[in-house]
Amino acid sequence: MKKLLLATTALVAFAAGAQAADLGVPRSPVAAAVVAPAFNWTGFYLGAHLGAVVNQDRVNIPGYGALGLYTRSPTSLMVGGQLGYNYQVNNVVFGLEADLSYLAGSRTGLSGNGGAELFRVRPDYNGSIRGRLGFAADRALFYVTGGVAFHGLTANFDLPFNGPRKYNYVGGTVGAGVEYAVTNNWSVRGEYLYGFYGTKTAVFNGPVDIRPQTHTFRVGVNYLFSTGPSAVVARY
After folding, report:
1. Taking a C-beta distance cutoff of 8 angstroms, is the pair 219, 50 a contact?
2. Is residue 2 in a domain?
3. Predicted confidence (pLDDT) per residue in 203-233, tens digit
4. What total of structural domains would you count in the chain?
5. Measuring CA to CA, which residue among 74, 91, 55, 3 is closest to residue 211?
6. Residue 19 is assigned to a structural domain of this protein
7. Containing structural domain, residue 217
8. Beta strands in the chain (DSSP E)
9. Is position 5 within any domain?
10. Does the residue 157 lie in any domain?
C-alpha cells in the first residue's frame, strides 16, 4: 500500500511540474499574413466625357479639277456619354463599351471667287461600339480598344436650290487609354481614338465625294457598379 501511495504521489508531482514548465513558455502565434485588398474592375459602369475632335475631311469635287480636291481639318468640341462592362481575370481586364458624342464644330470648305465658301462640311456626332483589353495595376487600368465607329456630318453646297444634306458613316476605330479608380465606385480616364470611314457621294448639281477621318482626344468620368476591392485573403 505504501508503494502504491508513493508511486501515485510521484506521478502527480511530475505532471504538476510539467504543467508549470509549460506556463513559462509563451505560445507561438499562428502565422497570418493578410494581403492588402486589390481593386477589382469587374462590373458595369456608366459615365460622361468631353474633349476635342480633329476632323480630317477629304473632299473631291470632280467638276472643279485640282481645286476640287482638298482636305480640311476643323477641330470640334465634343460632349457625350458611355456605358460598358468589364471582366477581370487576374491582372487582365476584358471589356465592351458603347459611346455617343455630340460634336460642336464649325463648317469649313472650299473657297470660291471672292473668298466665299462654296462647299462646307460640319461634323455632327461620333459613336462607337468597342472591345477593350487592359492590364490592371490595382486601381490603374491601361488598355487598348477597337471596334465599329459611327460618324455623322452635314454638307452644304452654296449654290441655288442646294440645301444642307446629312450623311451617316459606318467605319472602324482604334485607340488606347488609361483609367484610374479614385474611389471604389468612381474612376477618371483619358483616351485617344482614331476613326476611319468610307466615302459617300453627295449630289449637288453633280457628285461630291466626302471621306472623313477623326482624331479624338477626350477625358471622362465613370460610375462603377461593382464591389470595388476583392475579398481580403489570409495566408497561414
Report:
1. yes
2. no
3. 766 677 888 899 999 999 999 997 665 533 4
4. 1
5. 55
6. no
7. 34-235
8. 33-34, 43-60, 69-72, 75-89, 92-104, 108-111, 117-137, 140-157, 165-181, 186-197, 200-203, 207-225, 234-235
9. no
10. yes
Q: How far is CA 59 from the centre of its chain?
A: 31
CATH of the domain at 222: 2.40.160.20
Q: What confidence tens digit (pLDDT) does each residue in 117-167 have?
A: 566 778 899 999 999 999 999 999 999 999 999 999 888 776 655 677 888
Task: Name the one residue in this structure whose C-alpha cell is 476583392.
Answer: 230
Q: Report the half-sphere exposure of 210 (CA within 13 A, side-chain side).
A: 30
**Cell triple for residue 208?**
461630291
3 class by beta-carbon count within 10 Å (0-12 exposed, 13-18 middle, 19+ buried): exposed
Specify the residue for cell string 492590364.
135
Distance from C-alpha of 131 to C-alpha of 8, rounded to nearest angstrom: 81
